[in-house]
Amino acid sequence: KAGVTQTPRYLIKTRGQQVTLSCSPISGHRSVSWYQQTPGQGLQFLFEYFSETQRNKGNFPGRFSGRQFSNSRSEMNVSTLELGDSALYLCASSLVPGDQETQYFGPGTRLLVL
Amino acid sequence: AQSVAQPEDQVNVAEGNPLTVKCTYSVSGNPYLFWYVQYPNRGLQFLLKYITGDNLVKGSYGFEAEFNKSQTSFHLKKPSALVSDSALYFCAVRYTGGSQGNLIFGKGTKLSVKP
Fold first, then answer.
1. Closest by Cβ to B49, choosing from A44, A100, A106
2. 20 to 30 Å CA-CA from B63: which of A45, A51, A61, A71?
3. Which residues of A2-32 are buried (b: 16+ CB within 10 A; e: fewer)?
4. Which one is predicted more confidently, A98 or A78?
5. Alpha carbons A10 and B12: distance in angstroms, whole number
6. Cα B38 to the center of its chain, rounded Å
7. pLDDT at B13
C-alpha cells in the first residue's frame, strides 16, 4: 500500500511569507504527527493529531499551526516565516497515537526561507 | 526534563566489523526507547524498541540494542557492519508520563561503513 506522502517536497519562501505543508497518511492510519528537523536542533516534535483533534503540541511559537481533516490528511501552516524556519518537516502516521511500530514517516518537505 | 544524548556525531566502521552507536537518556519514570534510521532523502524508518522485558532487543536489518538501566543507556549494535548500513541513526524516548506519540530524539549519529 502507498506510504506517507508529503507535498510539496521542496519549497522556497522569503521571510514574512506563510507556507502550508500537506501530509497524506497511510490508508487506515488516523494519527498524524509532525516533526521539524534541523542540523542544529535535530528532530523536534511539533504536534500530533488524532481524529481531527490536536492531542499534543511541542514547544513551538504560535506561528506554527496545524489541522487534520476527516479523511485523516493533515496540513501544517507556518506564518510570518523566519530564516530559522528553514528545515526538513517530517510527517508520520500511525494507526493510533503512540503506536511506534505502525508509525511510518514520510520523506519530508524541505523548506528554505530566504 | 526528558532528554536523549547521542555523544558521537559520527561513527566510522570497516565493513564486516562490529558497530556500536551510543545513546543515553534522562527521563522520569519508565522509558520507552527507540532507534530509527534515516537514509539520504528519505524519511525515518523504525528499527527497534524497548518497552519492558529482556534488556537485549532485536530489530530490523540485523540490528540489536541493549538497555542498561543503571547506566541509562540504550546502545545500538550490529555484529557485522555492511556498507549499506551507512545512514543517520536516531535514538528516541517516549516517557510513560507524556502524551502518546511525543518522541524526544537525540541529535543523530552518522554511521559510515567503508568497504
1. A100
2. A45
3. eebbbeeeeeebeeeeebebebbbbeebbbb
4. A78
5. 31
6. 11
7. 97
